[in-house]
Amino acid sequence: MTSAIIGLGKIGSRLATNFVKGGESVLIADNTFAKAQELAQTLGSLAQPRQITEAIAEADVIILSIWFDGIKEFFKTYASQLAGKILVDPSNPLGPDGQGGFKKNIPADQSSGGILATLVPAGAKLVKAFGTLGANSLGNAAFREPERVVLFYAANDEAAGQQVAKLITASGFDPVFVGDLDQSIRIEVGGDLHEFGKLGKTVTKAELASEI
């Protein structure tokens, strides 16, 4: 299956780097096409720059490395083009706290994954993944030996989840399924399985077993 990353900020660019390191071909797109071209030149032939509409048309799996509110707008804008696609949500529902930091910008008992599950365009399938570690850990902890660091994911559709699990493996991490999308809150900032939550660090499967 063909994969695309849309949004090439700190998270998206690190994911693209990890995919290429793992031998995975990936389409990369951003609002600024020159940004995709520049990153592709850095990463080599496995990373192919595309306009956003081109990436949507060509990809089977689309990782939306954009802010939570941006994903909601993306669903509205491209709804008719997303049928049959696997859409991957790495977002954390955060906004400025007015003091130079960030805070959750939805009710404490809600998750971005849960909200997006109600908005996903008809015919598309949503998977929550790639958002359980910060950008630095996505870069520094990938392909760790002898045991890989865990990345959690949630999905209502088993086949879609398995496809994303393959991408997690290709990106240098060990995929761990946490359940349906109603479990998304556990793998978002503040959740019990997030690096910036109760878990508080990167873990291997063996280390995870000792934590829970």
What does the model show?
- The chain has about 210 residues and is α/β, with parallel strands linked by helices.
- The chain contains eight helices and ten strands.
- The protein has helices spanning about 10-20, 35-45, 50-60, 70-75, 110-115, 135-140, 160-170, 205-210; strands spanning about 5, 25-30, 45-50, 60-65, 85-90, 95, 100-105, 125-130, 150-155, 175-180.
- The strands form two sheets. Strands 3-2-1-4-5-8-9-10 form an eight-stranded mixed β-sheet, with helices on both faces. A two-stranded antiparallel ribbon has the order 6-7.
- The N and C termini lie far apart (about 35 Å).
Question: How would you concisely characterize the structure shown here?
Answer:
It is built from eight helices and ten strands. It is α/β, with parallel strands linked by helices and 212 residues long.
Task: Give the arrangement of secondary structure elements.
Elements: E1 3-6, H1 10-21, E2 26-29, H2 33-43, E3 47-49, H3 52-58, E4 61-64, H4 68-77, E5 86-89, E6 94-96, E7 102-104, H5 112-117, E8 125-129, H6 135-140, E9 150-155, H7 158-170, E10 174-179, H8 205-211
Parallel strand pairs: 1-2, 1-4, 2-3, 4-5, 5-8, 9-10
Antiparallel strand pairs: 6-7, 8-9
Give the terminus-to-terminus CA distance.
34 Å
Side by side, the strands of the main sheet go 3-2-1-4-5-8-9-10
Instruction: List the uncertain runs.
Output: none
Mean pLDDT rating: 94
Main beta sheet: strand number and arrangement?
Answer: 8 strands, mixed
Element order, helices and strands? EHEHEHEHEEEHEHEHEH
Task: Kindly estimate the percentage of residues that lie in beta strands according to DSSP.
Answer: 15-25%
Helical fraction equals: 25-40%
Radius of gyration, in angstroms, nearest whole number: 16 Å
User: How does the overall form come out from the CA principal axes?
Assistant: globular
Total number of helical segments? 8
Tell me the total number of β-strands.
10
Structural class of the helices, strands and pairings?
A: alpha/beta
